[in-house]
Amino acid sequence: MKITVLGCGGSAGVPMLGGAEGALTGLWGNCDPRNSKNRRTRSSIVIEGDAPYIPASAQNEGEGGFRLLIDSGPDFRSQMLDQGLSRVDAVLFTHPHSDHTSGLDELRSVNRVLNAALPLYARQDVLDELKQRFGYAFTPWKGPGFFRPVFDEHLVTAEDTISFPGFDVRLFEQRHGKITTLGLRMGALAYCTDVETLSEEALDVLHGVDTWLVDCFQYNEHPAHGWLERVLSWRERIGARRTILTHMGPEMDYDTLCRELPEDVEPAFDGMVINT
Predict the structure, then answer these.
(1) Where would I find the Metallo-beta-lactamase domain in this sequence (predicted)?
(2) Cα of 256 vs its chain's centroid, Å
(3) What are the residues whose beta carbons fall under 8 Å from the beta carbon of 245, sequence distance 6 or more?
(4) pLDDT per residue as tens digits for the range 17-39
(5) Kind of pairing between the strands at 90-92 and 65-70
(6) pTM score
(7) Model confidence pLDDT, tens digit, residues 200-216
(8) Can you tell me the mean pLDDT for 256-267?
(9) Half-sphere exposure at residue 71, Cβ-oriented, CA atoms within 13 angstroms
(10) Could you tell me what percent of the chain has a pLDDT over 90?
(11) Can you list the domains of the chain with their CATH numbers?
C-alpha cells in the first residue's frame, strides 16, 4: 500500500496569509521559509492499493492501484498536479470543515478522467452539509459531459469497514473540538486527521498499528487538534512503530522537529510518499 501526502498543513496552511509583501510573503511563524518542506497545503492524502487497477470506464488506462482520496480541500487541484496524479477512484470525507471539503467542485475533473460518477463516502451529517453547500453537485445528472461534479453516494458510519480493491478501511470515531471526525485504519497503517481526543475504543482500533499519520497542530494544548505531548502519549499507548505528524501549523518547523523528536517520530511534508 502507498500513501501520498497531498497536504499536511492546518486550516490556513503554511505560510498563512498576511505579513509584509514580497518574495517570502506570508506568516511563517517558527517555520523557516527557506525550507520547502515548511510550505504546507491543507491536509489530504491518497491511499493506493498494491494490486493493479484500471477503471472500467476511464478515458485512459492510468497507472497504479485503486486510489482513495481522503478529503478534498481548497488546494486539491494544485496538490494533484504537483504530485503528478490525474486520477482517484473514490473519495471519503472525514468531516465537513471547509479545509477538508471546499475543493469538492474540482472533482469534476476526476469525473472526466473516469468518465463516470465518482464514488463518495461520508456520514449522513457530512453528506447533508455538503449538499447544503454544493447543492448543484448533487442534482440528478443527465449528461453528457461533466460541467460539475457527479457522485455515487455511499453512507458510512464510524463502525464500518469498507472494502476497496486491494485494501480495507476500518472507520472509527474521533473527537475534534465540538464535532466528531472519522479516523481510518488500513491494516498496518492508520490516518487520524483533525483529532484532539481519542476514546478507549478508538485507541483499541489503533493498537498495534505499524505506521500512524496523526494530527499534531502545535506544541501546546489545543481545544480541537492534537498537540505534541498528547500525540507522543497516544503513540506509546498504541505501540506504533513509526509516527508521522500532519495537520501542522506555523509553529512546527520541519528541521527543528527532525532534531527534537524521538527517532520513531517525524514530521510529514507535502508530497511525502509512505510505503507499507
Answers:
(1) 41-247
(2) 24
(3) 8, 214, 216, 228, 231, 252, 257, 261, 265, 266, 267, 268
(4) 998 887 678 999 999 999 999 99
(5) parallel
(6) 0.96
(7) 999 999 999 999 999 99
(8) 98
(9) 32
(10) 91
(11) 2-18+25-275 (3.60.15.10)
**Distance separating alpha carbons of residues 80 and 237, to the nearest angstrom:** 35
In this predicted structure, what is the pLDDT of residue 58? 63
| Cell numbers given for 136 | 448543484
Closest Cα to residue 185, out of 173, 168, 165, 164?
A: 168
In three-state form (DSSP H/G/I as H, E/B as E, the rest C), the secondary structure along the chain is CEEEEEECECCCCECECCCCCCCCCCECCCCCCCCHHHCECECEEEEEEEEECCCCCCCCCCCCEEEEEECCCCCHHHHHHHCCCCCCCEEECCCCCHHHHCCHHHHHHHHHHHCCCEEEEECHHHHHHHHHHCHHHHCCCCCCCCCCCCEEEEECCCCCEEEECCEEEEEEEEEECCEEEEEEEECCEEEECCCCECCHHHHHHHCCCCEEEEECCECCCCCCCCEHHHHHHHHHHHCCCEEEEECECCCCCHHHHHHHCCCCEEECCCCCEEEC
Q: Residue 114 and residue 162: Cα distance in Å, rounded?
A: 21
The C-alpha R_g of the chain, in whole angstroms, comes to: 18
Choose between 57 and 259: higher pLDDT. 259
Rounded (10°) CA dihedral 95, 66, 167, 2: -80
Amino acid at 64: G
Residue with cell 506570508: 26
Question: What contacts 24+ positions apart, CB below 8 Å, involve 178-183?
Answer: 178/224, 179/95, 179/96, 179/97, 180/95, 181/94, 181/95, 182/92, 182/94, 182/95, 182/123, 182/156, 182/158, 183/94
- pLDDT attached to residue 25: 83
